[in-house]
Amino acid sequence: xxxxxxxxxxxxxxxxxxxxxxxxxxxxxxxxxxxxxxxxxxxxxxxxxxxxxxxxxxxxxxxxxxxxxxxxxxxxxxxxxxxxxxxxxxxxxxxxxxxxxxxxxxxxxxxxxxxxxxxxxxxxxxxxxxxxxxxxxxxxxxxxxxxxxxxxxxxxxxxxxxxxxxxxxxxxxxxxxxxxxxxxxxxxxxxxxxxxxxxxxxxxxxx
Length: 207
Ligand code: AMP
Fold this sequence. Notes:
The chain has 207 residues and is an alpha/beta fold. The chain has helices at 13-24, 31-40, 44-55, 61-72, 90-99, 112-120, 134-137, 158-172, 174-181, 194-206, and strands spanning 2-6, 28-30, 81-84, 104-109, 122-124, 131-133, 185-189. The protein has a single domain, classed as P-loop containing nucleotide triphosphate hydrolases (Rossmann fold, 3-Layer(aba) Sandwich). The strands form 2 sheets. The chain has a 5-stranded parallel β-sheet with strand order 2-3-1-4-7, sandwiched between helices. A two-stranded antiparallel ribbon has the order 5-6. Helix 4 (61-72) runs parallel beside helix 5 (90-99). The protein is globular. It binds adenosine monophosphate. Adenosine monophosphate binds at residues 9, 31-32, 35, 52-53, 56-59, 64, 85-86, 88, 92, 155, 164.
């Protein structure tokens, strides 16, 4: 099954994709993770996109589409995949439709206030790509999964969060209509605990 996870930054796409990838035994393709890895390893791509990522803007469509197209052509995607963070614009969605068949777009619906509170309390593990929240971490500074040192993502600073939300509303939100028109959209209430939201997703997938 080829699944897209839609939703604002902080709506829980990454967390849900990580759980689904285990349950469905298909890979999670996160463009954000791919870009952050390039940034960390200071590859030519990483250097090219550094300012964009840190400023909360979007990497140009040509670059992003090419990366996703190549990644989805790898053998581990033949049984299906979960796209987390792609597409993020109509141009990306149209490109995806030209080389892949999308089965379902799950839109995680979360109000703005919850998003800002989630992102400002978010902690990230650069070693295992785990994302956590201070409400469950308490004072812990190391990753509860792999023991890596937790950080605040640069793009989770208040100013950048507001820019990411602005970009989401202007460029990514129209995708909801795009997939609704294709009758592939399923909207899931993304508020509440991780397990509650995950159960809602499994329920719609089973239908
Ligand atoms: P994420 O982890 O999905 O929030 O992505 C982190 C950052 O990577 C975003 O704020 C963008 O700068 C960039 N990015 C991720 N996915 C895309 C995409 N599909 N198109 C353009 N830029 C992206």
